């Protein structure tokens, strides 16, 4: 049979030059790319066979085989998918059609070093084979064509490639990599299995490898004729909810998170719309030790059509939800999407917003079921029936909040669109509850008539907050004050000016206006006192000139002679201490 030589499209030649001349930090992704092509080819066959089942010939079980030959130094990835005709091989393996790679090409700078980094972030599909191979042979036969209509495609990864017609009984494609000297590590069962496990575990087809057995006489592993699947081939998230048990969800979570405890809650959805993706999100039961590190890696794994793309996809979740674990599988993103591109992608933004909404909804639900006793007797006097399932949710929100409440508060400053929802999820201690269990809504429901604000005080700890002289008048009037002792409260609350139409007011700031809560007599007394003490105040102001901005007569004290307050809009004593401790 005659061989034909073809030139690569100029862009391909340029790309190959880069692939082969770049020291590449993440070499092993070539296998991910080739396995994903094999899997795509099987999907395509399955699709075409919907109209013509004869395409399956006598091999209806679609599979991928990965084999290596130590002597020949070859690694072969074979599928029995759709295959390629000679014309298709010339087109598909000689030109760049896909947008992802084109995009990649457009970002090349010509600077070897920078471009090498870029190639590390992208995969480059079929051509990534040349990262580890100095020659690639592709043998293929398209489903439906005769065995004599097969094709062999060969290239050394430089300017051109050769094709010839061959006879190939089996439908589908073999990609044979002739490994470079420095790529011998891939001639190892263990290594290949590890890479497949990392990137291709959830490919829905079996990926088969030959079994190996230890041969004592020879002192080495010998490959058997028996093949076994090395991937679990079960992308849990692609299955229907009703087919997945709670145990399976919990098991999957443990594998995903390396967490020994079962998750508190999860949510599994297929989202359709402008962006199509599947989300499976978990709320852990315990906070990790490095929760406070804002550089802590995000807990979301990104897949594109079941192919693993990256861990810790921080672009898919806002920072204040960095503790959520889960999987997102997108149908829209290109396989070779990089972290940089993720930040800019509109699809990704839609996924992040969808994930955020979902997590907040999960939390709302847990919060609602936290105390089932309270739901049984609704305000309308009607007794709602609490399902066993809901009862099982009792206490979970309190548990969640104790672990993650502080970091959730960061959302007030970070996620303006959801501020209202986050505010509803907050819980505090108060002058009527030592437990951190009072929601802003609870507080509002207990407000005194004429009370104009939600009052709070921040302090280092509960005892200090409770004994603050600034609370005296509130206590006397029976007005509840939220006691905030979390380090982030001051900062977080500075982003929340009101809740459900009621302003939030620190009792340690400015002239607290108790407004109509003071009776006439008290108001008169205050005015009189201000008059009487004016000379004293002037003297105090003079002698405290450098230390205090103002000295005022106050209605807020009952027993204590004096207290410090800060101006509205100034940092509070608590925050000032915190900043000082942080060295600012
Ligand atoms: P992509 O997979 O994103 O299209 P690749 O560079 O990975 O880009 O592959 C280029 C093209 O080569 C594919 O679109 C497909 O048409 C063809 N191809 C690659 N591998 C196979 C295969 N195993 N079987 C059939 N066609 C293949
Ligand atoms: Mg591909």
From TrEMBL:
Region A, as annotated, extends over 1-339
The superkingdom listed in its UniProt entry is Bacteria
Q: By its UniProt entry, which PROSITE patterns does this protein fall under?
A: HSP90
- The Histidine kinase/HSP90-like ATPase domain sits at 26-183
Q: Which UniProt keywords apply?
A: ATP-binding, Chaperone, Cytoplasm, Nucleotide-binding, Stress response
Is Nucleotide-binding one of the keywords UniProt gives this record? Answer: yes
Among CDD domains, the record links this protein to: HATPase_Hsp90-like (cd16927)
- Keyword Chaperone carried by entry: yes
Which Pfam family would be a valid example here? HSP90
Instruction: Please give the chief subcellular localization of this protein.
Output: cytoplasm
Q: Which InterPro entries match?
A: HATPase_C_sf, HATPase_dom, Heat_shock_protein_90_CS, HSP90_C, Hsp90_fam, Hsp90_N, Ribosomal_Su5_D2-typ_SF
Q: State where the protein is found.
A: Cytoplasm
Assembly and interaction partners: Homodimer.
Q: Indicate the family of this protein.
A: Belongs to the heat shock protein 90 family.
The protein's job, in short, is: Molecular chaperone. Has ATPase activity.
Listed PANTHER family: HEAT SHOCK PROTEIN 90 FAMILY MEMBER (PTHR11528)
- Name of the featured protein: Chaperone protein HtpG
Its taxonomic placement starts with:
Bacteria, Pseudomonadati, Pseudomonadota, Betaproteobacteria, Burkholderiales
Q: Which gene encodes it?
A: htpG
């Amino acid at each position: 049979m005659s061989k034909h030589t073809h030139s690569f499209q100029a862009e391909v030649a340029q790309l190959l030059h880069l692939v082969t001349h770049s020291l590449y930090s993440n070499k092993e992704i070539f296998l991910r790319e080739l396995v994903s092509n094999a899997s795509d080819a099987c999907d395509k066959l399955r699709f075409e066979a919907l109209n013509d089942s004869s395409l399956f010939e006598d091999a209806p079980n679609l599979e991928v085989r990965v084999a290596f030959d130590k002597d020949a130094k070859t690694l072969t990835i074979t599928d029995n998918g759709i295959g390629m005709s000679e014309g298709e091989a010339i087109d598909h393996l000689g030109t760049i059609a896909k947008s992802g790679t084109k995009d990649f090409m457009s970002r090349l700078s010509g600077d070897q070093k920078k471009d090498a980094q870029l190639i590390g972030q992208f995969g480059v599909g079929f051509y990534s084979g040349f990262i580890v191979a100095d020659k690639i042979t592709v043998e293929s036969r398209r489903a439906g064509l005769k065995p004599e209509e097969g094709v062999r495609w060969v290239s050394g990864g430089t300017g051109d490639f050769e094709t010839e017609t061959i006879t190939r009984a089996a439908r589908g494609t073999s990609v044979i990599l002739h490994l470079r000297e420095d790529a011998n590590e891939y001639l190892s069962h263990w290594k290949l299995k590890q890479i497949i496990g990392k990137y291709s575990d959830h490919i829905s087809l079996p990926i088969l490898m030959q079994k190996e057995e230890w041969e004592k006489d020879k002192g080495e592993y010998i490959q058997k004729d028996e093949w076994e699947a090395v991937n679990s081939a079960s992308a849990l998230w692609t299955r229907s909810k009703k087919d997945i048990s709670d145990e399976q969800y919990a098991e999957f979570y443990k594998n995903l998170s390396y967490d020994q405890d079962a998750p508190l809650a999860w949510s599994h959805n297929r989202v359709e719309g402008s962006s199509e993706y599947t989300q499976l999100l978990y709320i852990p039961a315990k906070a990790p030790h490095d929760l406070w590190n804002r550089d802590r890696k995000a807990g979301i794994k990104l897949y594109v059509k079941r192919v693993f793309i990256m861990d810790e996809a921080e672009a898919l979740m806002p920072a204040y939800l960095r503790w959520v674990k889960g999987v997102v599988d997108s149908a829209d993103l290109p396989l070779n999407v990089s972290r940089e591109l993720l930040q800019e992608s509109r699809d990704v933004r839609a996924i992040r917003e969808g994930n955020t909404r979902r997590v907040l909804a999960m939390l709302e639900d847990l919060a609602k079921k936290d105390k089932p006793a309270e739901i049984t007797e609704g305000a309308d006097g009607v007794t709602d029936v609490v399902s066993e399932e809901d009862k099982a949710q009792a206490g979970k929100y309190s548990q969640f909040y104790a672990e993650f409440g502080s970091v959730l508060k960061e959302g007030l400053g970070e996620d303006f669109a959801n501020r209202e929802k986050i505010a509803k999820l907050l819980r505090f201690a108060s002058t009527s509850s030592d437990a951190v269990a009072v929601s802003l809504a609870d507080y509002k429901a207990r407000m005194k008539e004429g009370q104009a604000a939600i009052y709070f005080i921040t302090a280092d700890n509960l005892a200090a907050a409770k004994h603050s002289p600034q609370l005296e008048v509130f206590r006397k009037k029976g007005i509840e004050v939220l006691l905030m002792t979390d380090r982030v409260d001051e900062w977080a609350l500075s982003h929340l000016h009101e809740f459900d139409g009621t302003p939030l007011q620190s009792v340690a700031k400015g002239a607290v206006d108790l407004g109509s809560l003071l009776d006439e007599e008290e108001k008169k007394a205050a005015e009189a006192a201000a008059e009487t003490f004016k000379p004293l105040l002037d003297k105090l102001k003079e002698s405290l000139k450098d230390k205090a901005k103002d000295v005022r007569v106050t209605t807020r004290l009952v027993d204590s002679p004096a207290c410090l307050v800060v101006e509205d809009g100034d940092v509070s004593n608590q925050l000032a201490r915190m900043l000082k401790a942080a060295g600012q």
